[in-house]
Amino acid sequence: MTDTPKIRLRDVRKAFGSKVVLDGVDLDVRARHGMVVLGGSGSGKSVTIKCVLGLIRPDSGLIEIDGRDVSAMTDRQRTEIMDRTGMLFQNGALFDSLPVWENVCFKLLAQKRISRAKARDKAAEILAQVGLAPSVGDLSPAELSGGMQKRVALARAIAAEPDILFLDEPTTGLDPIMGAVIDGLIVDCVKRLGATTVAITHDMASARRIGDDAAMIHKGKIIWNGPAATLGQTGNPMVDQFARGEREGPIQMELRK
Ligand SMILES: Nc1ncnc2c1ncn2[C@@H]1O[C@H](COP(=O)(O)OP(=O)(O)OP(=O)(O)O)[C@@H](O)[C@H]1O
């Protein structure tokens, strides 16, 4: 018997006015595995994730989390799922008006799962997991380098020990070594938490490091999915062109049409 996918999309469709963005997306994300979603700019990667997060309502199709249809959930059931979901935004999206420790414990404080008195120590504990000193907790996000901000954003995303972690371009804007460090932290956190991750990335080295599985979206459909380790040698000309970053190939030919 096969395990129920953690996240399952079937024939998910979404148009904005006359512009069809998702044209029947089918995707299974295995529990406790990393899925990376690839695709050109504007291909619908973020819209797909926003549909799963409930930030955008698809026009039609099925989205299940743990085998349960999200559209049939009560607000309370949906909130429960969101409480167990972490999100690392592309730009970090830290709150500049709050010190790092409050950013890290934001969700725990908002959900009253921790007192303010305890939150500072808790933040120090989580910051240590992403390789940052406790003193960083007292700084403002504006005082941090880009790499440190990403680490803090990761600390915030994992603080509430999520079951599902969405990562939107976790290594964009980082130098290659810092990118590898962040990827290592993501993989460690996921192993420790037993979480399922869905990452959007344009960084193929990162995709191979954090992904067990990969899927490519093109023209609103998933045109390929398979092991992330095979990216560049999948045998699918579009995926391989994309993964190798080659100018010439089927995608370029379509752009020229
Ligand atoms: N709220 C919205 N209203 C109208 N159009 C939207 C909305 N959100 C997204 N779109 C459109 O949907 C398309 C897909 O956007 P999406 O953000 O999913 O792209 P993406 O694949 O994540 O791209 P990138 O790699 O550049 O971030 C784009 O053409 C975008 O303009």
From TrEMBL:
It holds the Pfam family ABC_tran. Residues 7-244 form the ABC transporter domain. This is Phospholipid/cholesterol/gamma-HCH transport system ATP-binding protein. One of its GO terms (molecular function) is ATP hydrolysis activity. PROSITE patterns: ABC_TRANSPORTER_1, ABC_TRANSPORTER_2. It comes from the Bacteria. The lineage of its organism: Bacteria, Pseudomonadati, Pseudomonadota, Alphaproteobacteria, Acetobacterales. Keywords: ATP-binding, Nucleotide-binding, Transport. InterPro entries: AAA+_ATPase (IPR003593), ABC_transporter-like_ATP-bd (IPR003439), ABC_transporter-like_CS (IPR017871), P-loop_NTPase (IPR027417). It comes from Humitalea rosea. The keyword Cell cycle does not apply. PANTHER family: PROTEIN TRIGALACTOSYLDIACYLGLYCEROL 3, CHLOROPLASTIC (PTHR43023).
